[in-house]
Design brief:
By secondary structure, the protein is mainly alpha-helical. It is 74% helix and 4% strand.
Length: 497
């Protein structure tokens, strides 16, 4: 009976629509992001087709991945203004057009526009709008579960699209593969993104302005008992307000909404956020962290060949890291909502464990040891990548997601683009991977200290209260605190004006 009640709680009422959005997000990620992350399968084909070097091809893939994250400050105001579904559909069309146009390019240089720019922007439009929509549907209950399940599309897409792309390439060639994938992404993406429904009224805090036009109010969180009392007192004090005053208030609210629509791009760069020391250190920590985050996935196989481990076994270790990351994302989703401490502390812990694992790799010379290294790296990478949305909203508040999330994921993208380039330059200069492991372990240790400092600064100097002009809700973001028993709590106070 308890199991039935839990299932009814998960999918009852309109909740099934939220889970449908989550499922369609996973399916969309598998094809669009999986195609982008399987770029390694294109390397040899592109070299032969255009007779170019690996550096140019590597930059094409790196710029695409960078735009997946760095374009978030552009796509966030767009889905706030026009809605998540429209922006996601636009991203699907851009990705499809990118692959189709790339199939006709006569020179590798054109791919920086047809593939890197168009596909990077399209992938960001799909990724950013969909993950924010999932977060809007699951603001409190099952938020970690939903966002982590949605992010499994990254790992599943990599595991699925690599062999699929390789099979198509070997059958029909490079240019026809681009055309087939273009058609697949367009059909599948349009079907999945059409199911991106706006969240219900009580969940619409991060919904787009298109949703705001339909929903007159939005709630950032269910108020606590004190919040309810305050709200009732305010309502009782104003129940005798004249009709003229009510009309004036409604007119003022409408004007505020119109004014907010004009200032979406400005609202993303909110001054109170960018002058908060905790947020600035958080961004720096994410850049430093991701400088070394992608190293195992880019250089692991080649490094193992220097140890005398055959390339085929190196591929097995890389696959183990991928499966470990997928398992880690699932574990984060299943356990994330039931942790006895704030999820923000998982970030410095994961970074520190990765640092120890990276330093210890200098002592590993066997295949079994590299398997253990890959398992640990995969699990920690899953924590860093799939919980960033949840931790960002936990640290800086749901009402600030629109102006903090784009730069949180953007900072990770910046580190992800710069990191492999620095790693390649260090290897070219030294001719050995040992220096890379020392640098990588040092950067991961530094990022762990910065992440912890960001949390402490955030608690000491929290973001100021924000009044939402379109909803009339005065909200205070969550604070990581301790109760009388010295247990960590996440407290959130919402007072309705």
């Amino acid at each position: 009976m308890k199991c039935f009640d839990r299932v009814r709680l998960l999918f009852g009422g309109t909740q099934w629509k939220a889970w449908l959005v989550c499922l369609c997000t996973v399916l969309t990620y598998i094809s669009i992001l999986g195609t982008m992350l399987s770029f390694g399968a294109w390397f040899l084909k592109l070299e032969r087709e255009f007779d170019t070097n690996t550096t140019v091809i590597g930059w094409i893939g790196s710029v695409t991945y960078g735009l997946l994250c760095l374009a978030s400050p552009l796509s966030t105001p767009l889905f706030l203004r026009y809605g998540h579904r429209k922006v996601a559909l636009c991203g699907v069309v851009l990705c499809s057009a990118s692959l189709l146009s790339t199939s006709f390019v006569p020179h590798i240089g054109y791919m920086f526009v047809t593939y890197s720019l168009l596909y990077g922007l399209g992938a960001n439009f799909v990724f950013n709008s969909s993950i924010n929509l999932v977060g809007a549907h699951f603001q409190h209950r099952y938020r970690s579960l939903a966002t982590c399940l949605a992010s499994t599309g990254f790992a599943i897409g990599t595991l699925v699209m690599n062999p699929v792309t390789e099979a198509i390439l070997s059958t029909v060639g490079l240019r026809n593969t681009y055309r087939i994938l273009s058609a697949m992404i367009l059909v599948k993406g349009v079907i999945c993104c059409s199911a991106f429904v706006a969240p219900p009224t009580e969940n619409a805090n991060t919904a787009s302005m298109a949703s705001h036009d339909q929903d007159k109010h939005r709630a950032l969180a269910p108020p606590g008992e004190k919040g309810n009392i305050t709200a009732m007192e305010k309502l009782m004090e104003h129940e005798d307000t004249s009709e003229e005053e009510k009309s004036s208030v409604a007119s003022s609210s409408t004007n505020d909404r119109r004014e907010e629509k004009k200032n979406h791009f400005l609202n993303v760069f909110r001054k109170a956020v960018w002058t908060n020391p905790g947020f600035l250190v958080w961004l720096l920590a994410n850049v430093v962290l991701c400088l070394s985050l992608l190293f195992p996935f880019f250089h692991l196989v080649k490094y193992m060949t220097t140890l005398g481990i055959p390339e085929k076994r190196g591929v097995i270790v890389a696959s183990v890291a991928g499966f470990s990351e997928l398992a880690g994302r699932l574990l984060c989703g299943l356990l994330g909502d039931f942790l006895p401490f704030p999820k923000a502390y998982l970030f410095p812990t994961a970074a520190l464990v990765m640092a120890v694992d990276t330093f210890s790799c200098l002592l590993i010379t066997t295949f079994a040891g590299m398997i253990v290294y890959a398992l640990v790296i995969g699990l920690c990478t899953a924590i860093i990548t799939c919980l960033v949305y949840v931790v960002n909203s936990e640290l800086f508040g749901l009402e600030n997601v629109d102006c903090t999330w784009p730069f949180s994921i953007g900072s990770q993208g910046l580190g992800g683009v710069i990191g492999p380039t620095i790693a390649g330059a260090i290897y070219d200069r030294t001719g050995t991977y040992s220096t890379l492991f020392y640098v990588g372990g040092g950067l991961l240790s530094l990022s762990a200290a910065l992440l912890l400092a960001a949390i402490l600064l955030r608690n000491a100097m929290p973001l100021p209260e924000v009044t939402s002009t379109d909803s009339g809700h005065l909200t205070r973001n969550m604070v990581l605190a301790e109760d009388s028993y010295n247990n960590f709590l996440i407290t959130e106070k919402v007072t309705t004006v």
